[in-house]
Write a structure and sequence with these properties.
Hydantoinase/oxoprolinase, six-stranded mixed sheet, Oxoprolinase-like, Nucleotidyltransferase, domain 5, 494 residues, Hydant_A_N, alpha/beta
Length: 494
Protein backbone atom coordinates (compact mmCIF):
# COMPACT_ATOMS: atom_id res chain seq x y z
CA UNK A 1 0.00 0.00 0.00
CA UNK A 2 1.20 3.52 -0.84
CA UNK A 3 0.91 6.33 1.65
CA UNK A 4 1.67 9.96 0.79
CA UNK A 5 2.78 12.48 3.37
CA UNK A 6 3.56 16.16 2.89
CA UNK A 7 5.79 17.75 5.53
CA UNK A 8 4.98 21.45 5.46
CA UNK A 9 6.12 24.33 7.61
CA UNK A 10 3.22 23.98 10.08
CA UNK A 11 1.59 20.58 9.57
CA UNK A 12 2.25 17.16 8.12
CA UNK A 13 -0.55 15.82 5.90
CA UNK A 14 -1.21 12.11 5.35
CA UNK A 15 -3.14 10.48 2.48
CA UNK A 16 -3.95 6.80 2.03
CA UNK A 17 -5.36 5.82 -1.35
CA UNK A 18 -7.39 2.59 -1.43
CA UNK A 19 -11.03 1.91 -2.17
CA UNK A 20 -11.58 5.24 -0.49
CA UNK A 21 -9.32 8.23 0.21
CA UNK A 22 -8.32 8.71 3.84
CA UNK A 23 -6.53 11.87 4.95
CA UNK A 24 -5.25 13.35 8.20
CA UNK A 25 -3.38 16.45 9.35
CA UNK A 26 -0.82 16.40 12.19
CA UNK A 27 0.75 19.58 13.68
CA UNK A 28 4.52 19.47 13.29
CA UNK A 29 5.16 20.39 16.91
CA UNK A 30 3.92 16.89 17.85
CA UNK A 31 6.83 15.34 15.92
CA UNK A 32 7.10 12.28 13.69
CA UNK A 33 5.94 9.94 16.47
CA UNK A 34 2.46 11.46 16.17
CA UNK A 35 2.60 10.95 12.38
CA UNK A 36 3.61 7.31 12.85
CA UNK A 37 0.77 6.78 15.34
CA UNK A 38 -1.81 8.21 12.93
CA UNK A 39 -0.40 6.08 10.09
CA UNK A 40 -0.87 2.96 12.22
CA UNK A 41 -4.48 3.96 12.85
CA UNK A 42 -5.11 4.43 9.12
CA UNK A 43 -3.35 1.38 7.67
CA UNK A 44 -2.99 -1.04 10.59
CA UNK A 45 -0.22 -3.58 10.17
CA UNK A 46 -0.17 -3.45 6.36
CA UNK A 47 3.20 -3.08 4.68
CA UNK A 48 3.44 0.36 3.10
CA UNK A 49 5.57 2.41 0.74
CA UNK A 50 5.95 5.81 2.33
CA UNK A 51 6.29 8.68 -0.16
CA UNK A 52 7.25 12.11 1.14
CA UNK A 53 6.98 15.59 -0.29
CA UNK A 54 8.43 18.43 1.72
CA UNK A 55 9.32 22.08 1.55
CA UNK A 56 10.96 22.16 4.97
CA UNK A 57 14.65 21.32 4.27
CA UNK A 58 14.88 23.60 1.27
CA UNK A 59 12.97 26.45 2.89
CA UNK A 60 15.23 26.30 5.93
CA UNK A 61 18.39 26.31 3.85
CA UNK A 62 17.32 28.89 1.28
CA UNK A 63 16.23 31.23 4.08
CA UNK A 64 19.79 31.17 5.43
CA UNK A 65 21.61 30.11 2.27
CA UNK A 66 24.45 32.61 2.64
CA UNK A 67 24.93 31.74 6.31
CA UNK A 68 25.81 28.13 5.51
CA UNK A 69 29.38 28.18 4.26
CA UNK A 70 30.35 25.57 1.67
CA UNK A 71 33.93 24.64 0.82
CA UNK A 72 34.22 23.83 -2.89
CA UNK A 73 37.03 21.78 -4.45
CA UNK A 74 37.20 21.30 -8.20
CA UNK A 75 39.03 19.06 -10.67
CA UNK A 76 38.37 20.80 -14.02
CA UNK A 77 41.58 19.81 -15.81
CA UNK A 78 44.37 22.00 -17.11
CA UNK A 79 43.79 25.21 -19.05
CA UNK A 80 40.36 25.85 -17.55
CA UNK A 81 39.69 28.56 -14.97
CA UNK A 82 36.84 27.95 -12.56
CA UNK A 83 38.36 29.74 -9.56
CA UNK A 84 35.22 31.86 -9.15
CA UNK A 85 33.37 28.65 -8.21
CA UNK A 86 35.92 27.13 -5.84
CA UNK A 87 39.47 25.88 -5.28
CA UNK A 88 41.00 24.19 -8.35
CA UNK A 89 43.19 21.17 -7.62
CA UNK A 90 45.37 18.85 -9.67
CA UNK A 91 43.56 15.91 -11.22
CA UNK A 92 41.52 15.45 -14.40
CA UNK A 93 39.16 13.12 -16.25
CA UNK A 94 38.85 13.63 -20.00
CA UNK A 95 35.70 13.70 -22.09
CA UNK A 96 35.90 9.94 -22.62
CA UNK A 97 36.01 9.19 -18.92
CA UNK A 98 39.73 8.41 -18.73
CA UNK A 99 41.72 9.63 -15.72
CA UNK A 100 44.48 11.63 -17.43
CA UNK A 101 45.88 13.16 -14.24
CA UNK A 102 45.51 11.67 -10.77
CA UNK A 103 44.71 13.88 -7.81
CA UNK A 104 47.44 14.88 -5.36
CA UNK A 105 46.37 13.47 -2.00
CA UNK A 106 48.64 15.82 -0.04
CA UNK A 107 47.22 18.83 -1.87
CA UNK A 108 43.65 17.72 -1.15
CA UNK A 109 44.50 17.16 2.52
CA UNK A 110 46.09 20.58 2.84
CA UNK A 111 43.18 22.43 1.24
CA UNK A 112 40.60 20.59 3.33
CA UNK A 113 42.52 21.15 6.54
CA UNK A 114 43.09 24.87 6.01
CA UNK A 115 39.69 25.88 4.61
CA UNK A 116 37.12 23.80 6.49
CA UNK A 117 33.54 25.12 6.30
CA UNK A 118 30.03 23.91 7.22
CA UNK A 119 29.87 21.52 4.28
CA UNK A 120 31.84 20.41 1.23
CA UNK A 121 31.09 20.23 -2.51
CA UNK A 122 33.37 18.14 -4.75
CA UNK A 123 33.07 18.47 -8.54
CA UNK A 124 35.22 16.90 -11.26
CA UNK A 125 34.45 18.05 -14.81
CA UNK A 126 33.66 14.68 -16.43
CA UNK A 127 32.83 12.76 -13.26
CA UNK A 128 29.48 11.60 -14.64
CA UNK A 129 31.56 9.55 -17.10
CA UNK A 130 33.98 8.38 -14.41
CA UNK A 131 33.63 9.43 -10.74
CA UNK A 132 36.98 7.94 -9.68
CA UNK A 133 38.60 11.24 -8.64
CA UNK A 134 35.53 12.45 -6.77
CA UNK A 135 35.36 9.17 -4.87
CA UNK A 136 39.05 9.40 -3.96
CA UNK A 137 38.60 12.96 -2.73
CA UNK A 138 35.52 11.86 -0.81
CA UNK A 139 37.50 9.25 1.12
CA UNK A 140 40.06 11.88 2.10
CA UNK A 141 37.34 14.41 2.99
CA UNK A 142 35.71 12.05 5.49
CA UNK A 143 38.59 12.89 7.86
CA UNK A 144 37.32 16.48 8.01
CA UNK A 145 33.58 16.27 7.29
CA UNK A 146 30.72 13.96 8.20
CA UNK A 147 29.25 11.93 5.33
CA UNK A 148 26.06 14.00 5.37
CA UNK A 149 28.09 17.17 4.87
CA UNK A 150 29.75 16.10 1.58
CA UNK A 151 28.13 16.37 -1.88
CA UNK A 152 29.60 14.80 -5.03
CA UNK A 153 28.70 16.11 -8.48
CA UNK A 154 28.56 12.78 -10.33
CA UNK A 155 25.13 12.11 -8.79
CA UNK A 156 23.78 14.93 -10.99
CA UNK A 157 23.27 13.53 -14.54
CA UNK A 158 24.13 16.73 -16.42
CA UNK A 159 27.24 17.48 -18.50
CA UNK A 160 27.16 21.28 -18.03
CA UNK A 161 30.01 21.74 -15.57
CA UNK A 162 29.24 25.22 -14.14
CA UNK A 163 25.61 24.26 -13.50
CA UNK A 164 26.71 20.96 -11.96
CA UNK A 165 29.11 22.81 -9.64
CA UNK A 166 26.30 25.14 -8.52
CA UNK A 167 23.94 22.24 -7.95
CA UNK A 168 26.57 20.36 -5.96
CA UNK A 169 26.99 23.42 -3.71
CA UNK A 170 23.19 23.51 -3.20
CA UNK A 171 23.21 19.79 -2.41
CA UNK A 172 26.00 20.23 0.12
CA UNK A 173 23.94 22.83 1.96
CA UNK A 174 20.80 20.67 1.89
CA UNK A 175 22.19 17.25 2.69
CA UNK A 176 22.21 17.39 6.48
CA UNK A 177 18.53 18.35 6.74
CA UNK A 178 17.42 15.64 4.33
CA UNK A 179 19.61 13.03 6.06
CA UNK A 180 18.10 14.01 9.41
CA UNK A 181 14.58 13.56 8.07
CA UNK A 182 15.41 10.18 6.54
CA UNK A 183 17.02 8.95 9.77
CA UNK A 184 13.95 9.97 11.77
CA UNK A 185 11.49 8.25 9.42
CA UNK A 186 13.58 5.10 8.94
CA UNK A 187 13.37 4.37 12.65
CA UNK A 188 9.89 3.13 11.75
CA UNK A 189 9.71 2.55 7.98
CA UNK A 190 12.27 1.08 5.60
CA UNK A 191 10.62 1.64 2.23
CA UNK A 192 10.83 5.42 1.81
CA UNK A 193 10.52 7.47 -1.36
CA UNK A 194 10.71 11.22 -1.94
CA UNK A 195 8.60 13.39 -4.19
CA UNK A 196 10.57 15.47 -6.69
CA UNK A 197 9.98 19.03 -7.78
CA UNK A 198 8.88 17.86 -11.24
CA UNK A 199 6.18 15.56 -9.86
CA UNK A 200 8.06 12.27 -9.92
CA UNK A 201 9.03 9.85 -7.18
CA UNK A 202 12.57 8.72 -6.35
CA UNK A 203 13.94 6.24 -3.79
CA UNK A 204 15.28 7.98 -0.69
CA UNK A 205 18.87 6.95 -1.48
CA UNK A 206 18.81 9.20 -4.56
CA UNK A 207 17.42 12.12 -2.55
CA UNK A 208 20.26 11.70 -0.05
CA UNK A 209 22.82 12.09 -2.83
CA UNK A 210 20.98 14.76 -4.81
CA UNK A 211 18.59 16.58 -2.42
CA UNK A 212 18.11 19.54 -4.77
CA UNK A 213 15.68 17.23 -6.62
CA UNK A 214 13.22 18.11 -3.83
CA UNK A 215 13.03 21.78 -4.80
CA UNK A 216 9.34 22.73 -5.34
CA UNK A 217 8.34 19.28 -4.10
CA UNK A 218 5.19 20.52 -2.33
CA UNK A 219 3.90 22.70 -5.23
CA UNK A 220 4.39 19.72 -7.55
CA UNK A 221 2.49 17.47 -5.19
CA UNK A 222 -0.46 19.81 -4.78
CA UNK A 223 -0.96 20.29 -8.52
CA UNK A 224 -1.15 16.53 -9.16
CA UNK A 225 -3.38 16.11 -6.11
CA UNK A 226 -5.71 18.84 -7.35
CA UNK A 227 -5.92 17.21 -10.77
CA UNK A 228 -6.64 13.78 -9.28
CA UNK A 229 -9.32 15.10 -6.92
CA UNK A 230 -11.14 17.30 -9.46
CA UNK A 231 -10.39 15.98 -12.94
CA UNK A 232 -9.86 19.61 -13.99
CA UNK A 233 -7.18 19.72 -16.69
CA UNK A 234 -6.82 23.48 -17.07
CA UNK A 235 -6.87 25.68 -13.99
CA UNK A 236 -4.70 27.58 -11.52
CA UNK A 237 -4.19 25.72 -8.26
CA UNK A 238 -4.25 28.13 -5.30
CA UNK A 239 -2.77 26.39 -2.27
CA UNK A 240 -3.22 28.31 1.00
CA UNK A 241 -0.57 27.04 3.36
CA UNK A 242 0.56 28.19 6.77
CA UNK A 243 3.48 30.40 5.74
CA UNK A 244 2.83 31.00 2.04
CA UNK A 245 0.15 30.76 -0.60
CA UNK A 246 1.37 28.99 -3.73
CA UNK A 247 0.04 29.24 -7.29
CA UNK A 248 0.66 26.48 -9.85
CA UNK A 249 -0.92 26.19 -13.31
CA UNK A 250 -2.45 22.99 -14.62
CA UNK A 251 -2.33 22.74 -18.41
CA UNK A 252 -3.85 19.65 -20.02
CA UNK A 253 -3.59 17.84 -16.70
CA UNK A 254 0.11 18.62 -16.13
CA UNK A 255 2.08 21.44 -14.50
CA UNK A 256 4.44 23.63 -16.48
CA UNK A 257 8.03 22.49 -16.01
CA UNK A 258 11.00 24.84 -15.85
CA UNK A 259 14.61 23.85 -16.44
CA UNK A 260 17.66 25.22 -14.60
CA UNK A 261 15.84 26.62 -11.59
CA UNK A 262 17.59 29.38 -9.64
CA UNK A 263 18.05 28.35 -6.00
CA UNK A 264 19.66 30.65 -3.48
CA UNK A 265 20.84 32.86 -6.32
CA UNK A 266 22.58 29.98 -8.12
CA UNK A 267 21.50 28.77 -11.55
CA UNK A 268 21.19 25.00 -11.17
CA UNK A 269 20.50 21.76 -13.00
CA UNK A 270 17.20 21.39 -11.17
CA UNK A 271 14.08 20.63 -13.17
CA UNK A 272 10.81 21.45 -11.39
CA UNK A 273 7.29 22.80 -11.69
CA UNK A 274 6.86 26.52 -12.24
CA UNK A 275 5.22 28.04 -9.20
CA UNK A 276 4.54 31.47 -7.78
CA UNK A 277 4.34 32.26 -4.07
CA UNK A 278 3.32 35.12 -1.80
CA UNK A 279 4.48 35.26 1.85
CA UNK A 280 0.96 35.13 3.31
CA UNK A 281 -0.91 32.13 4.72
CA UNK A 282 -3.01 30.89 7.60
CA UNK A 283 -0.20 31.47 10.11
CA UNK A 284 0.50 35.04 8.97
CA UNK A 285 0.61 37.52 11.84
CA UNK A 286 -2.33 39.90 12.22
CA UNK A 287 -1.63 43.36 13.62
CA UNK A 288 -4.36 45.69 12.35
CA UNK A 289 -3.93 43.93 9.02
CA UNK A 290 -2.30 40.71 7.77
CA UNK A 291 1.52 40.74 7.80
CA UNK A 292 3.93 38.71 5.61
CA UNK A 293 5.43 37.17 8.76
CA UNK A 294 4.98 33.84 10.53
CA UNK A 295 5.84 33.91 14.25
CA UNK A 296 4.08 30.74 15.45
CA UNK A 297 1.09 28.58 14.75
CA UNK A 298 -2.37 30.10 15.34
CA UNK A 299 -3.74 30.50 18.86
CA UNK A 300 -6.52 28.17 17.73
CA UNK A 301 -3.91 25.44 17.37
CA UNK A 302 -1.92 26.06 20.55
CA UNK A 303 0.29 28.91 19.34
CA UNK A 304 0.80 32.31 20.92
CA UNK A 305 0.50 34.60 17.87
CA UNK A 306 -2.76 36.05 16.59
CA UNK A 307 -2.96 34.96 12.95
CA UNK A 308 -5.15 35.03 9.88
CA UNK A 309 -6.72 31.75 11.05
CA UNK A 310 -7.60 33.35 14.40
CA UNK A 311 -9.05 36.39 12.59
CA UNK A 312 -11.36 34.08 10.62
CA UNK A 313 -12.58 32.54 13.89
CA UNK A 314 -13.37 36.01 15.20
CA UNK A 315 -15.53 36.57 12.12
CA UNK A 316 -17.70 33.55 12.88
CA UNK A 317 -15.80 30.53 11.55
CA UNK A 318 -14.96 27.57 13.76
CA UNK A 319 -11.43 26.43 12.97
CA UNK A 320 -9.54 24.47 15.63
CA UNK A 321 -10.11 25.80 19.15
CA UNK A 322 -12.01 28.83 17.87
CA UNK A 323 -13.01 29.97 21.35
CA UNK A 324 -9.36 30.68 22.21
CA UNK A 325 -9.06 32.81 19.08
CA UNK A 326 -12.08 34.85 20.16
CA UNK A 327 -10.71 35.29 23.68
CA UNK A 328 -7.55 36.79 22.15
CA UNK A 329 -9.44 38.89 19.60
CA UNK A 330 -7.61 41.91 18.22
CA UNK A 331 -8.75 44.91 16.23
CA UNK A 332 -8.58 44.67 12.47
CA UNK A 333 -9.81 41.07 11.95
CA UNK A 334 -12.18 41.98 9.15
CA UNK A 335 -9.60 44.19 7.46
CA UNK A 336 -6.94 41.45 7.73
CA UNK A 337 -9.15 38.90 6.00
CA UNK A 338 -10.25 41.38 3.34
CA UNK A 339 -6.64 42.36 2.68
CA UNK A 340 -5.59 38.72 2.34
CA UNK A 341 -8.44 38.05 -0.10
CA UNK A 342 -7.43 41.11 -2.13
CA UNK A 343 -3.74 40.15 -2.23
CA UNK A 344 -4.51 36.64 -3.47
CA UNK A 345 -7.12 37.89 -5.96
CA UNK A 346 -4.64 40.38 -7.42
CA UNK A 347 -2.11 37.60 -7.93
CA UNK A 348 -4.73 35.51 -9.72
CA UNK A 349 -5.53 38.45 -12.01
CA UNK A 350 -1.82 39.00 -12.64
CA UNK A 351 -1.47 35.35 -13.68
CA UNK A 352 -4.55 35.71 -15.94
CA UNK A 353 -6.31 32.61 -14.67
CA UNK A 354 -9.90 31.84 -15.64
CA UNK A 355 -10.58 29.07 -13.12
CA UNK A 356 -8.99 28.22 -9.79
CA UNK A 357 -8.81 25.07 -7.69
CA UNK A 358 -8.64 25.87 -3.99
CA UNK A 359 -6.48 23.68 -1.76
CA UNK A 360 -5.07 23.93 1.73
CA UNK A 361 -6.72 23.91 5.14
CA UNK A 362 -8.28 27.37 4.74
CA UNK A 363 -9.56 26.86 1.18
CA UNK A 364 -13.17 26.14 2.22
CA UNK A 365 -13.26 29.41 4.19
CA UNK A 366 -11.56 31.76 1.74
CA UNK A 367 -11.61 30.52 -1.88
CA UNK A 368 -15.21 31.53 -2.63
CA UNK A 369 -14.51 35.16 -1.68
CA UNK A 370 -11.14 35.12 -3.46
CA UNK A 371 -12.72 33.81 -6.67
CA UNK A 372 -15.47 36.44 -6.50
CA UNK A 373 -12.91 39.21 -6.00
CA UNK A 374 -10.76 37.90 -8.87
CA UNK A 375 -13.76 37.32 -11.16
CA UNK A 376 -12.97 33.65 -11.83
CA UNK A 377 -14.68 30.28 -11.50
CA UNK A 378 -13.60 28.03 -8.65
CA UNK A 379 -13.58 24.43 -7.45
CA UNK A 380 -12.91 23.26 -3.89
CA UNK A 381 -12.39 19.47 -3.92
CA UNK A 382 -13.05 17.05 -1.11
CA UNK A 383 -9.79 16.47 0.81
CA UNK A 384 -8.59 19.91 -0.33
CA UNK A 385 -6.82 20.34 3.01
CA UNK A 386 -4.51 17.42 2.18
CA UNK A 387 -4.24 17.75 -1.60
CA UNK A 388 -0.41 17.73 -1.39
CA UNK A 389 -0.38 14.34 0.32
CA UNK A 390 -2.98 12.99 -2.11
CA UNK A 391 -0.81 14.08 -5.05
CA UNK A 392 2.13 12.26 -3.52
CA UNK A 393 0.17 9.06 -2.95
CA UNK A 394 -1.26 8.82 -6.48
CA UNK A 395 1.93 9.56 -8.44
CA UNK A 396 4.17 6.99 -10.08
CA UNK A 397 7.90 6.48 -9.75
CA UNK A 398 9.96 8.86 -11.88
CA UNK A 399 13.61 8.14 -12.48
CA UNK A 400 16.30 9.75 -14.63
CA UNK A 401 19.16 7.74 -16.10
CA UNK A 402 22.32 9.08 -17.74
CA UNK A 403 24.04 6.60 -20.06
CA UNK A 404 27.43 6.95 -21.74
CA UNK A 405 28.41 4.48 -24.48
CA UNK A 406 31.97 4.13 -25.85
CA UNK A 407 32.24 1.23 -28.27
CA UNK A 408 35.95 1.70 -29.00
CA UNK A 409 36.74 1.00 -25.37
CA UNK A 410 33.84 -1.45 -25.23
CA UNK A 411 32.19 0.07 -22.18
CA UNK A 412 28.77 1.40 -21.23
CA UNK A 413 28.54 3.58 -18.15
CA UNK A 414 25.15 3.95 -16.47
CA UNK A 415 25.08 6.75 -13.91
CA UNK A 416 21.47 6.89 -12.95
CA UNK A 417 21.96 9.10 -9.90
CA UNK A 418 22.26 6.07 -7.66
CA UNK A 419 24.64 3.67 -9.30
CA UNK A 420 27.74 3.53 -11.46
CA UNK A 421 28.01 0.41 -13.65
CA UNK A 422 30.30 -0.70 -16.48
CA UNK A 423 29.20 -3.24 -19.04
CA UNK A 424 30.86 -4.30 -22.32
CA UNK A 425 29.37 -3.35 -25.67
CA UNK A 426 30.74 -3.95 -29.18
CA UNK A 427 30.61 -2.76 -32.79
CA UNK A 428 28.81 0.17 -34.37
CA UNK A 429 25.25 0.01 -33.07
CA UNK A 430 22.62 2.31 -34.55
CA UNK A 431 21.49 5.30 -32.51
CA UNK A 432 18.15 3.60 -31.93
CA UNK A 433 19.92 0.55 -30.44
CA UNK A 434 21.83 2.70 -27.96
CA UNK A 435 18.66 4.54 -26.94
CA UNK A 436 16.98 1.19 -26.44
CA UNK A 437 19.85 -0.01 -24.25
CA UNK A 438 19.34 3.04 -22.02
CA UNK A 439 15.56 2.51 -21.89
CA UNK A 440 15.96 -1.16 -21.02
CA UNK A 441 18.43 -0.30 -18.27
CA UNK A 442 16.07 2.31 -16.84
CA UNK A 443 13.17 -0.16 -16.78
CA UNK A 444 15.44 -2.70 -15.09
CA UNK A 445 16.42 -0.20 -12.38
CA UNK A 446 12.75 0.64 -11.79
CA UNK A 447 11.99 -3.06 -11.32
CA UNK A 448 14.75 -3.25 -8.74
CA UNK A 449 12.78 -0.64 -6.81
CA UNK A 450 9.60 -2.70 -7.13
CA UNK A 451 8.03 -0.70 -9.97
CA UNK A 452 6.60 -2.17 -13.16
CA UNK A 453 7.25 0.35 -15.93
CA UNK A 454 6.23 0.15 -19.58
CA UNK A 455 8.38 1.50 -22.40
CA UNK A 456 5.71 4.03 -23.36
CA UNK A 457 6.26 5.76 -20.00
CA UNK A 458 9.94 6.44 -20.77
CA UNK A 459 10.94 9.71 -22.41
CA UNK A 460 14.26 10.47 -24.12
CA UNK A 461 15.42 13.82 -22.71
CA UNK A 462 18.74 14.02 -24.55
CA UNK A 463 20.77 12.12 -27.17
CA UNK A 464 24.02 12.85 -28.93
CA UNK A 465 26.44 10.53 -30.74
CA UNK A 466 29.48 10.66 -33.00
CA UNK A 467 31.87 8.24 -34.68
CA UNK A 468 35.47 8.14 -33.44
CA UNK A 469 37.95 8.29 -36.36
CA UNK A 470 41.71 7.82 -35.90
CA UNK A 471 44.18 7.68 -38.79
CA UNK A 472 41.31 7.64 -41.24
CA UNK A 473 39.86 4.50 -39.67
CA UNK A 474 36.52 4.32 -37.86
CA UNK A 475 37.39 3.12 -34.38
CA UNK A 476 34.09 3.23 -32.58
CA UNK A 477 31.11 5.27 -31.55
CA UNK A 478 30.44 7.49 -28.55
CA UNK A 479 26.92 8.42 -27.40
CA UNK A 480 25.32 10.24 -24.48
CA UNK A 481 21.72 9.44 -23.59
CA UNK A 482 19.43 10.76 -20.86
CA UNK A 483 16.12 8.94 -20.40
CA UNK A 484 13.40 9.46 -17.83
CA UNK A 485 10.29 7.73 -16.59
CA UNK A 486 7.88 10.64 -16.94
CA UNK A 487 6.12 11.94 -13.84
CA UNK A 488 2.38 11.41 -13.69
CA UNK A 489 -0.46 9.65 -11.95
CA UNK A 490 -0.30 5.88 -11.63
CA UNK A 491 -2.06 4.20 -14.53
CA UNK A 492 -4.28 2.03 -12.33
CA UNK A 493 -5.76 5.20 -10.81
CA UNK A 494 -6.55 6.99 -14.08
Amino acid sequence: MRVGIDVGGTNTDIAVIGEEIKTAKIPNYLGFDAVFKKLSELVGEKKIKLIISTSVPLNLVVSKFDKIKAQVILFPGSGLNYERYGKQLRGAVNHRGDVVEDLDEKEVEEVLRENKADCLAIACKFSIRNPELELKAYEIAKKYYKEDEIALSHHIPVLNYPLRINTTIINAKLMKKVHEMVRAIRTRYDEIYFYKGDGGIIPYRIALNNPSELYNSSPAAVVFGAYFLTGEKDALVVDIGGTTTDFVFLKDGKPKIIERAIIGGLKSCVRCVESHSIPFGGDSLVEETVKPVRVSQPIAFGGDSFTLTDALNCLGYEIGDYKKSREAKKDGCERAVEDFVSIVAEKIKELKAEKIIGTGFLAPFLIKDIAKKAGVKYVIPEHCESANAVGVAVSRLSYTLYARFDTENKIAVYDGEATFIKDKIYGFPEDEELIQLAIDKLISIAKDFGEEVEEKDVKVLYFNSYVVVKGGIRRGKIADVIVQIEPGIREELT
